[in-house]
Amino acid sequence: MFSVELLLIVGCLLLGLLIGSFLNVVIWRVPRGESIVSPPSACPECGHEIRWYDNIPVISWLVLRGKCRDCGAPISGRYPLVELGTGLLFGYMAWIFGYSWELPAFLYLAAISVALGLIDLDVKRLPNLIVLPSYLVAGALLLLPAFVTPAWDSYLNAWLGAVALFGFYFLLAFIYPAGMGFGDVKLAGVLGLYLGWLGWGSLIVGGFLGFLLGALVGVAMMIGRRAGRKTMIPFGPFMLVGALIAIGAGDAVTDWYVGLLGA
Predict the structure, then answer these.
(1) How close are the terminal C-alpha atoms of the chain, in Å?
(2) Which residues touch 203 (CB under 8 Å, ≥6 apart)?
(3) In this structure, which of 80, 120, 135, 150 has its CB flanked by the most CB atoms within 10 Å?
């Protein structure tokens, strides 16, 4: 028998699969300045519009064996992976926040994390069209728990966190502009908003993890001779992954570190 918590996680996972299908469109079209609502999705090889039953997340790709129904052209395995990844992130947020007023805000973060992370990997850019409205969307969604719970202290900390992380990244970009893009600075404010809501410990852990993950991957790529010291590596994905980890484990890491200091 399913518990109500498990039902929520499964429900959010399924919702994430559907959102992931839409994010595939966002990831492809937004960097190219194309509309995300029209025209309908079509095969890039033969131009046939994708039928609704060929657009069921993950399942349609498996049924079609990764090929277009009309011309047999291969369909990238990235599409179902984006759908599955988004579903898992939605389930992750539901597992952390449960039935709470915070959940919608963090589901939104999960969605933009997938879109922004992959766009940054593709074109080394974090589009303003997604980042800038996220300040308003996240701020509005976090008003729900701030008002209902109430949790106005957390809401104030959220905006202080946004200012703090934005300011820190802005300083880094000012000191060494070649190593930090302004898109990263703007994204830092959004992540600071969410991490600040959770607390200063989560903010510090999330910010630190972004740099740690970036450094580890950079060193690994240099050892594998896939990058040099001057190779530009998108930093947005590391910021996003660091923040997502901190959302689930920030308090635990903070308590562990404080325990070491007190030992």
Answers:
(1) 44
(2) 161, 164, 165, 192, 195, 196, 246, 250
(3) 120
Contact 152, 104 (CB under 8 A): no
CA 12 – CA 63 distance, rounded (Å) = 23
Measured between alpha carbons, how far is residue 57 from residues 24, 64, 201, 238 in Å? Answer: 11, 12, 37, 26
Cα–Cα dist 13/158, whole Å: 26
User: Taken in order 113, 119, 125, 130, is the CA torsion positive or negative?
Assistant: negative
- Measured distance CA(140)–CA(160) in Å, rounded: 16
Angle at 11 between CA 8 and CA 13, to 5 degrees: 110
Cα–Cα distance for residue pair 44/74, rounded to 1 Å: 10
Question: If you average pLDDT over residues 153-182, what whole number do you get?
Answer: 93
Token pair 């395995």 in the structure block, residue: 77
Q: Buried b vs exposed e over 240-261: b needs ≥16 C-beta within 10 Å? A: bbbbbbbbebbeebbeeeeeee
Q: Is the pLDDT of residue 179 over 90?
A: no
Question: For the segment 108-136, what is each residue's pLDDT rounded down to a tens digit?
Answer: 999 999 999 999 999 999 999 999 999 99
Measured distance CA(141)–CA(139) in Å, rounded = 6
Judged by DSSP in three states, 13 sits in: helix
